[in-house]
């Protein structure tokens, strides 16, 4: 492998890894506060791509306006899912809310199948994202650079919000001890809604980027990226935002390098994520940056 080819794979791996990290944040934020695996997160990604698709096709919106509307509507959908399916079960056994999450996921997928149809559709790719950039003998699409830059800006803003604002302090307090945070006067419902809003907005951006990178959408498009990003969150330490970022980059770089260095194993690319998950659970069940949480008795 030449140095130029290695560099090309490395940049592709960073780009895919930052996309995984962006989506994995939604899983880890919800789990950090509610101890809930939000199985509907992958379907939120799918809805974001369809809102863009119909915004451009039916309403002839400029692509940038369709992107913004998609992020806003997806955020509203995410908050609505929390209020309708999770909030009424907040004091129920944990298994009930987990089943509710699985039910919401199946409901969104099957409703989308009925409304949008099962036939795959082409996702619009503006020229700005497909322009080929050459440097040092390496040719890459501009999207390859736009994804990590966008992810980096959003993740920096999120990290600042969580670590340097009163809202972030309330989020961390809620994640640490739900009941004590309530007794301290924190509006738990508002914090949880905000968490779902941020997670859904990041999922929308991730879904749009995913559609630009793999420009074919269908009602089940969110399943595989959703599973992989959940794995990324677990690998890094679910409930830990830096851990989700780290897990995303490990998964993205690992996938691309597996295909680059061992091309005969290209068909096992998706299996790599699950093998990595099994290894991490065997070696370090809490994830790379995860902390062991003692159960209350």
Automatic annotation (TrEMBL):
Keyword Transport listed: yes
A GO molecular-function annotation: L-valine transmembrane transporter activity
Family per record: Belongs to the binding-protein-dependent transport system permease family. LivHM subfamily.
An individual GO BP term: L-isoleucine import across plasma membrane
Descriptive protein name: High-affinity branched-chain amino acid transport system permease protein LivH
Superkingdom field: Bacteria
Cited Pfam families: BPD_transp_2
Membrane topology label: Multi-pass membrane protein
Major localisation: membrane
InterPro entries: ABC_transp_permease, BCAA_transport_permease
Protein keywords: Amino-acid transport, Cell inner membrane, Cell membrane, Membrane, Transmembrane, Transmembrane helix, Transport
Any one cellular-component term (Gene Ontology): plasma membrane
Membrane-spanning parts: 6-27, 39-58, 64-85, 97-118, 138-162, 183-211, 217-238, 245-265, 271-290
Compartments where found: Cell membrane
């Amino acid at each position: 492998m030449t140095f130029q080819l290695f560099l090309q794979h490395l940049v592709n791996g960073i780009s895919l890894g930052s996309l995984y990290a962006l989506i994995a944040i939604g899983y880890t934020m919800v789990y950090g506060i509610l101890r809930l695996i939000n199985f509907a997160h992958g379907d939120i990604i799918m809805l974001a791509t369809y809102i863009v698709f119909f915004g451009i096709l039916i309403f002839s919106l400029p692509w940038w306006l369709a992107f913004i509307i998609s992020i806003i509507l997806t955020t509203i959908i995410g908050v609505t899912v929390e209020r309708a399916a999770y909030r009424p079960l907040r004091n129920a056994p944990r298994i009930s809310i987990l089943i509710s999450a699985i039910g919401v996921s199946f409901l969104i997928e099957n409703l989308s199948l009925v409304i949008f149809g099962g036939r795959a559709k082409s996702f619009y790719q503006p020229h700005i994202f497909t322009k080929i950039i050459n440097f040092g003998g390496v040719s890459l699409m501009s999207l390859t650079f736009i994804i990590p830059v966008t992810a980096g800006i959003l993740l920096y803003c999120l990290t600042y919000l969580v670590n340097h604002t009163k809202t972030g302090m309330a989020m961390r307090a809620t994640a640490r001890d739900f009941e004590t945070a309530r007794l301290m006067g924190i509006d738990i419902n508002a914090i949880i809604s905000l968490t779902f809003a941020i997670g859904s907005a990041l999922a929308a951006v991730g879904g749009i980027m995913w559609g630009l990178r793999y420009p074919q959408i269908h009602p089940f498009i969110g399943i595989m990226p959703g599973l992989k990003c959940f794995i990324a969150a677990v690998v890094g330490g679910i409930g830990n935002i830096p851990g989700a970022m780290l897990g995303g980059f490990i998964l993205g770089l690992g996938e691309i390098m597996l295909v680059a260095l061992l091309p005969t194993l290209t068909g096992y690319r998706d299996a790599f994520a699950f093998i990595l998950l099994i290894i991490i659970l065997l070696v370090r069940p809490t994830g790379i940056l995860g902390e062991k949480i003692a159960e209350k008795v």
